[in-house]
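Hi R.,

Here's the chain you asked about this morning:
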Amino acid sequence: MLLTGPSGSGKSRLAARTGLPVLRLDDFYKEAGDPTLPRLPGGATDWDHPESWDADAAAAAVRALCEHGRTAVPVYDIGTSSRTGVADFALDGAPLLLAEGIFAADIAARCAALGLLADAICLRGRPFTTFRRRLLRDVRESRKPVPFLVRRGWSLMRAEGSIVARHRTLGAHPCARDEALGRIDGLRQAHPAVRC
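And here is the predicted structure, written out as tokens:
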């Protein structure tokens, strides 16, 4: 299953509630200094653009997990925009995998074509609530300088409708937390043998 949505929409919190193995797709960000990183006006890296993320590596990790039950995944530090290591990730016999991140919908078509996609969900809520959650999280984790976080967060809040619309176009079903949990629980009960 893929879980996407705007940054700060509560994906990680919801994923943790499911009790499923959770693959953090945000660990597949490219590193600072990569010449392919997209830029904002003014020159800062646009970490909310899908080209800031390695979709090929993320899709390969999902495929490896579904086919073999384990794979090596990067460990990413958002504060320094760098990969700090590699970790072993195993399903340990779990019948489902939840892969979550702001670009998860970008690999939905690939996963579906490989027969690996059980569902794709886009978590959405009120834009100001998302803005507040994102800002508090990013400041707490010292992800970037506070003035940048406020400016960028305000811009993302205004763009949230178009972000959700893009995820829908890529095949994700937009819904609030309770509906998302219901879809995940229903899938787990209806298809206990489904992998991913």
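One quick note: Residues 131 and 153 are 6 Å apart (CA to CA).

Cheers,
M.
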